[in-house]
Amino acid sequence: MPDDILLTDLRDNVLILTLNRPSKLNALSPDLLKRLAEELEAADADDSVKVVVFYGGEKVFAAGADITAMAQLNPTGVLQSGTRGYWKRIWDFGKPMIAAVRGIAFGGGCELAMSCDLIVASESSQFAQPEIKLGIMPGAGGTQRLAAAIGPYRTMEMVLTGEPISAQEAHDAGLVNRLVPDEKVLEEALALAATIAQRPQVAVRLARQAVRYGVERTLLDGLKMERRNYRMLYDTEDQKEGMAAFLEKRDPQFKDR
Predict the structure, then answer these.
(1) If pLDDT is split at 50, 70 and 90, which confidence band does 1 have?
(2) How many structural domains compose the chain?
(3) How much is the average pLDDT of 141-154?
(4) pLDDT tens track for 16-60
(5) Is residue 34 domain-resident?
(6) Do the domain assignments include residue 243?
(7) SS3 95
(8) Has this prediction a pTM greater than 0.90?
C-alpha cells in the first residue's frame, strides 16, 4: 500500500489529512479509508492534535468510492470489504473535524465531508450522491446525514436523480458553513480550526458530543437500514451494469432487476 495516498501535516494543534490519489480523483478505496481510520485513531490519542482538517487538494475533494474495487462485489463481498468498519472508526473520532472542499465531493466524498462537524467549500465546488446512476444507493451516511442537514425533500432529489448541487446551493441549504473563493478554502478551514483549537478542549469535546448525540440518536438506526439496503443492491443486475458502464465509459442500460 503506497505511503503517499494520505498526506499528514500537523500545524499548531491542527492535523491536516490530505487525500492523495489524484489519478483516481481521490476515490475512497478500502486502503485509503483504512489509512484515514488509522490516522484518526492515532490523533484521538495525541493531545497535540485538537482539530482535524480533511483536504483533497486544489482540484478535487473526493469523487466517491473506488468503482474498480466495487464493480464485481456481491452483498457478502461488500460486508467482507471492511469499509463499514473503516467508516465507523472515522465516525467514532472524538475531536472536531472540518472538511475543506475544493472541486467535487461526490458519493463517498460527500459522505466524508458530511462526517465532519463543519464544511468550508470553494465557490466552484459541487456536492452529489450519484450512486443511483450505478444501480446502487449511498451507503456511508448519504441518505441520513444529508437529510439531517438539508431536509428530506432536497435529499430525495439529490439521491433519486444523482445530480449535483452547486456550492452556493449547498450553502443556502445549510450543508456548507462557509463559502469562499477557491484559493482560500484551506486557509479559511485552518483559520476556523485555529479558533476552535484555542477554546477549552474539554468543553469543546463535550459540546461537540452533545450536538452530535442529539442529531444521531435516530441517525444510527437510519444508518443500519441504509447499509442493509446498500448491500442488498449488490445482488441486482443493474448494479453490475451500472458499474460496468461507468468503467467502460458508456451509458448504462438498466433492466430494473
Answers:
(1) very low
(2) 1
(3) 93
(4) 999 999 999 999 988 999 999 999 999 999 999 999 999 999 999
(5) yes
(6) no
(7) coil
(8) no
Residue with cell 469562499: 180
What integer pLDDT is reported at residue 99 of this predicted model? 98
> What whole-number distance in Å separates Cα of residue 146 and Cα of residue 139?
12
Copy the grid coordinates of residue 257: 432487476
Report the chain's C-alpha Rg in angstroms: 18
Convert the pLDDT of each residue in 227-246 to its tens digit: 888 888 888 888 888 889 98
97: its cell numbers: 473535524
The separation between CA 242 and the C-alpha centre of its own chain, rounded to angstroms, equals: 21
**Does residue 211 belong to any structural domain of this protein?**
no
Grid coordinates in use for 251?
451509458
Beta sheet of 104-106, edge-to-edge order: 104-106, 126-128, 165-166
- CB neighbour burial string for 78-115, b if at least 16 within 10 angstroms, e if fewer: beebebbebbebbbebebbbbbbbbbbbbbbbbbbbbb
Output the nine-digit C-alpha cell for 87.
467508516
Q: Binning pLDDT at 50, 70 and 90, where does residue 3 land? A: low
Q: How many residues does the chain have?
A: 257
Instruction: Give the three-state DSSP class for 190.
Output: helix
Alpha-carbon distance of 184 to 240, in angstroms, equals: 40
Instruction: Report the half-sphere exposure of 80 (CA within 13 A, side-chain side).
Output: 7
For residue 134, the domain's CATH number is 3.90.226.10
Instruction: Show the domain range for 159.
Output: 6-181+192-197
Q: Is residue 227 part of a domain?
A: no
- The C-alpha cell that represents 38 in the structure block: 488509522
How far the first Cα of the chain sits from its last, in Å, is 36
Q: What residues are labeled active site?
A: 65, 108, 111, 131
